[in-house]
Write a structure and sequence with these properties.
Largest sheet: 5 strands, mixed
Strand order of the largest sheet: 32-33-36-34-35
Number of strands: 36
Number of helices: 12
Strand content: 25-35%
Distance between the termini: 73 Å
Structural class: alpha+beta
Length: about 625
């Protein structure tokens, strides 16, 4: 995320003074001035001139880390860690590997980090669940994420919708001077129209809020008359001097403004800002009583934490409170957004177990629960942050650099149906536990398979207004399929009643329903498997039964072709029976092609007669 400087605040620069020398002096100065684009060029020039060492490699890695160039950061962290490094370097290296999707390699660096900082909450979380990524990838999808037409070729983030106005922060203003950290213009607050057709148009700067420095993001009161927004403390001529680097260091601060007509007036810095730490990314609760924000103020657990402060009726403020370790870690937590219910908090974290970079989490602040990662596609291996949601319009916004640049994405909740499948005996109504229940999409792809519990139940969460099919089977019962009717939910109950297997057994053969195959194919279909399971059950009940499976075709096609096709089908039928635990010596297969028609109708066969001739027979060889 290129805009770490404004959204996560300036952070103290730490490097080993003894490692510096006259060769690195110029590059170090650029690094200390947060001019990372030029600093990277300077350090790379040292490497090209054979003046690279562990210090230069680490500085290069940190430079790219601060610009979230994950590929280059990982490359140089790999060089730096050829010699021993501090714990945080191993952690950063692990995050960059994860951002490149290299989870196994990331885990190796996390192991080094955990060994170097065993009491760090991030290390403890890793040791408790080192292989959490597959579980995150398997989480039920909660939202659909799509690109928005408000994004530009510069950094855009922090979008929030109030009524039909979308406010966001952007570096697109080419009239502004560029900032050395990102080589992009300073940030401005923008406002755009959110139209009834979902398009976003007429984006323009909110001039009454913007200054010549960084501005945004913002949050607004429910009545629309008050905004809180981030801006540089330069705005109030508050800063620290770094004499060594001839640099004035401002801090992110939160300001308040009130609406006057179409403009914002009375821009005032809040009293709990300070030139010694940053305060940014405000989010006001809908009842107007609590302001959430991010800060590296004293009392933070890590770099940047989520805090809250009471907003009193007279406009004064209480004492800021840290949200504690259920939200915050030794890493960075930022971009709080408090939902309309005044209790569900969304935020981004680089310290909690995620897919890479910043991930979006949510927590219910009312019940002491743990924060949960909301999974893909909101979260990716890159930085995903500034999640906001408008309950009235049922739409949200997300910022992410998943496409290489900070962009704004539209978030739509996945409409879900909780499908409860109950498996029973069709004759007695008895509950059937340990039945296999699969759910398939409209293309007949198996999504998941579960076993029914002691109450005969399996639960699946499916999307609204989509057709699904449930396949249920159990030893001793005929397998069957059951439709989940498309609906908007919130729930649906599917009664999956299975018929006990009752097979016709004659002295010479076992009579089953037709075993259907797809055209010109010999693989067993699910429908065919249900029918063959009946034969499996009969053979399990009679251990001496030996069967010959014969497959026949109709007389269309050449004799040679039909013989080969029927042989393949007969053999795949036998293989299915064997796969269910039947001894191979008890089942043999033979393809008959069109040699033994059931109806000898020659060239004048009807479709019905063709169907009768396309059959499988299960002859009893011994019993």
């Amino acid at each position: 995320m290129k805009n770490l400087y404004i959204t996560l605040s300036f952070v103290a620069v730490s490097f080993t003074i003894s490692a510096q020398n006259k060769d690195t002096k110029a590059a170090d100065k650029l690094f200390a001035r947060y001019e990372y684009v030029d600093a990277a060029k300077a350090y790379l020039k040292l490497v090209e001139n054979d003046k690279g060492d562990a210090y230069v490699y680490k500085q290069l890695a940190d430079t790219y880390y601060n610009m979230f160039n994950a590929a280059e950061a990982a490359k140089w962290y790999a060089r730096a860690t050829e010699t021993n490094q501090d714990a945080e370097t191993y952690y950063r290296y692990a995050q960059m590997l994860k951002a490149n999707g290299k989870y196994e390699e990331s885990n190796k660096q996390m192991q080094k980090f955990a060994a170097a900082a065993p009491n760090d909450s991030r290390a403890k979380a890793f040791k408790e669940n080192p292989n959490y990524v597959p579980r995150l990838l398997d989480k039920t999808k909660l939202y659909n994420v799509n690109s928005s037409d408000v994004s530009s070729d510069k950094s855009d983030f922090g979008a929030i919708l109030y009524d039909n106005a979308l406010y966001f922060t952007s570096a697109r203003n080419g009239a502004r001077k560029s900032y050395g950290w990102t080589d992009e213009p300073f940030l401005d607050v923008y406002k755009a129209d959110y139209n009834t057709d979902g398009t976003i148009t007429n984006a323009g700067t909110v001039t009454s809020l913007n200054s010549q420095y960084h501005d945004g993001p913002l949050t607004m009161s429910a009545d629309g008359n008050t905004v809180y927004f981030s801006s540089d403390s330069f705005r109030e001529k508050t800063f620290e001097k770094d004499k060594a680097n001839k640099l004035k260091l401002s801090r992110n601060s939160i300001f308040r403004a009130t609406k006057s007509g179409d403009s914002w007036t009375d821009v005032t810095m809040l009293p709990f800002n300070s030139k010694e730490f940053s305060t940014s990314n405000p989010s006001l609760s809908r009842d107007g009583k609590t302001l959430y924000f991010s800060s590296d103020r004293p009392g933070s657990l890590g770099g940047v934490d989520i805090w809250k402060v009471a907003v009193n009726a007279d406009g004064t403020f209480g004492e800021p409170q840290n949200l504690g370790n259920k939200v915050n870690t030794e890493g960075n937590e930022s971009f709080p957004f408090i939902a309309d219910d005044n209790k569900t908090l969304f935020f981004s974290s680089s310290g909690k177990p995620g897919l890479g970079g910043l991930d979006v989490f949510q927590i219910d602040l009312s019940n002491g629960s743990e924060a949960t990662n909301i999974g893909k596609p909101v979260n990716t291996e890159k930085d995903d942050f500034a999640f906001t949601f408008n309950g009235a319009k049922n739409i949200g916004f997300l910022s992410s650099n998943r496409n290489g640049n900070d962009d704004i994405f539209i978030v739509n909740p996945v409409c879900g149906v909780d499908a409860l499948i109950v498996v029973t005996d069709a004759k007695t109504g008895a509950i059937l536990a340990n039945a296999s229940v699969s759910i398939l999409d409209d293309k007949k792809n198996v999504i998941a398979t579960e076993m029914s519990n002691a109450r005969g139940e399996v639960k699946y969460r499916v999307e609204c207004d989509k057709a699904y099919v449930v396949q249920a089977s159990k030893d001793g019962y005929e397998g069957n399929t059951f439709a989940i009717t498309p609906s908007k939910g919130p729930s649906a109950k599917i009664d999956a009643a299975l018929q006990p297997i009752d097979v016709i057994v004659t002295p010479t053969e076992i009579v089953l329903k037709p075993i259907f195959f797809e055209y010109d194919k010999s693989n067993i279909t699910q429908e065919g498997a249900f029918e063959l399971d009946k034969l499996v059950q009969v053979m399990k009940n009679n251990s001496k039964l030996v069967i010959l499976a014969k497959s026949h075709t109709d007389n269309r096609g050449t004799d040679k072709y039909n013989l080969r096709l029927s042989d393949r089908r007969a053999k795949s039928t036998a293989q299915y029976i064997i796969s269910k635990g039947i001894d191979p010596s008890r089942i043999s297969a033979k393809g008959m092609g069109e040699l033994e028609p059931k109806v000898d109708c020659g060239k004048d066969c009807t479709e019905e007669q063709h169907a009768q001739n396309r059959r499988s027979e299960f002859l009893i060889v011994a019993q």
